Amino acid sequence: MEKELITNKQGIMMTILFVLGSNLLLGIAEEAKRDSWIAALLSIIMAVPALLAYSRILSNFPGKNLFEILQMVFGRFFGGVISILYIWYAFHLGSLVVRNFSEFINVIALPETPELFIVIVFMLLCIWAVKDGIELLGKWSEFFTHLVIFFIIALVLLSIPNMEINNILPIMYNGPKPVIKGAISGFAFPFAETVIFTMVFGALKDKSSPYRILLTGMLVGGVILTIVALMNILVLGEKFMSILYFSTYSSIRTVNVGGFIQRVEGSVAISFMIAGFVKVCVCLLAACKGLAKVLKIESYRVIVTPVALLMAEVAYVNYISITAMIDWNYRVYNIYALPFQVLLPIIILIGSEIKIRRSKKA
């Protein structure tokens, strides 16, 4: 298995883009409605222990990714079974993100274009990037993260004239239940999805690198998503947010500064695509690395193309409509993802701690 080295800065930038991913399109914790920004903050707090666990697993075995750790801790058979589960999760998550963005492109830009064509073109770009490895993704992320953050900051500032403070008042009007529900959703989508990075981070700078990369990336990405959530509710209001598929894009379309700065949604949409592209690439890379490990293939690169094309097909058949996609994201996904994001990591962490203690006694 190849060892690919990335710097802490590249890892942080990649994590930021991964966290932003689909949520720049679909929002975060929107079940909480006008209090979605509060739910987003709460979900960040909830995610910290999970990311500490992911980081601990990696730091226990420096230079190893999750699939290598699983076989070291649980043996070839049981480690292989858990690996297959995580291969599926990475693969399926990648297909879900691809579908999010193909729906977005189909709705806002290319309504007459067959969606399968959009999916395939998107995946062809991912094949090119993943075959060049995580080092290229790291360098690419290091450059483009600044661009994405710049566009988001500009968007928020340009949207200030359209904001109405009454849209978030009264705070917690619907009680704590929607906020808690939204926070759980925000935890699963996107913060705890960073478990995917345990599958691709092998050679890092030092044992503390996983903590620094995952926590910093998650916190920066989480703050950005919280600001975007607050902007959306201030600009659109609860009523309009509840009926819009892509609330952030709808907020962008309201920007009009003196008739001079307007129609900026195209350039900002590109920055959204960049974040989604990185997220899909990380998922595809994780699935290919895991499959190569289980099948004892020397290089994951030889299976990138078939896995990516299969991911494209699954992305196309995931949902029957955009409504079904939204329903899955906010009603089903947090339950579906629980074993991969919480239950299995707890088991792996306990197993790794036992393994470390036994090796020290030996």
TrEMBL record:
<dbReference type="Pfam" id="PF03845">
    <property type="entry name" value="Spore_permease"/>
</dbReference>
<feature type="transmembrane region" description="Helical">
    <location>
        <begin position="108"/>
        <end position="130"/>
    </location>
</feature>
<feature type="transmembrane region" description="Helical">
    <location>
        <begin position="180"/>
        <end position="201"/>
    </location>
</feature>
<feature type="transmembrane region" description="Helical">
    <location>
        <begin position="36"/>
        <end position="54"/>
    </location>
</feature>
<keyword id="KW-1133">Transmembrane helix</keyword>
<dbReference type="InterPro" id="IPR004761">
    <property type="entry name" value="Spore_GerAB"/>
</dbReference>
<feature type="transmembrane region" description="Helical">
    <location>
        <begin position="142"/>
        <end position="160"/>
    </location>
</feature>
<keyword id="KW-0813">Transport</keyword>
<dbReference type="GO" id="GO:0016020">
    <property type="term" value="C:membrane"/>
</dbReference>
<feature type="transmembrane region" description="Helical">
    <location>
        <begin position="213"/>
        <end position="236"/>
    </location>
</feature>
<protein>
    <submittedName>
        <fullName>Uncharacterized protein</fullName>
    </submittedName>
</protein>
<keyword id="KW-0309">Germination</keyword>
<feature type="transmembrane region" description="Helical">
    <location>
        <begin position="333"/>
        <end position="351"/>
    </location>
</feature>
<dbReference type="GO" id="GO:0009847">
    <property type="term" value="P:spore germination"/>
</dbReference>
<comment type="similarity">
    <text>Belongs to the amino acid-polyamine-organocation (APC) superfamily. Spore germination protein (SGP) (TC 2.A.3.9) family.</text>
</comment>
<keyword id="KW-0812">Transmembrane</keyword>
<keyword id="KW-0472">Membrane</keyword>
<feature type="transmembrane region" description="Helical">
    <location>
        <begin position="268"/>
        <end position="288"/>
    </location>
</feature>
<feature type="transmembrane region" description="Helical">
    <location>
        <begin position="66"/>
        <end position="88"/>
    </location>
</feature>
<feature type="transmembrane region" description="Helical">
    <location>
        <begin position="300"/>
        <end position="321"/>
    </location>
</feature>
<feature type="transmembrane region" description="Helical">
    <location>
        <begin position="12"/>
        <end position="30"/>
    </location>
</feature>
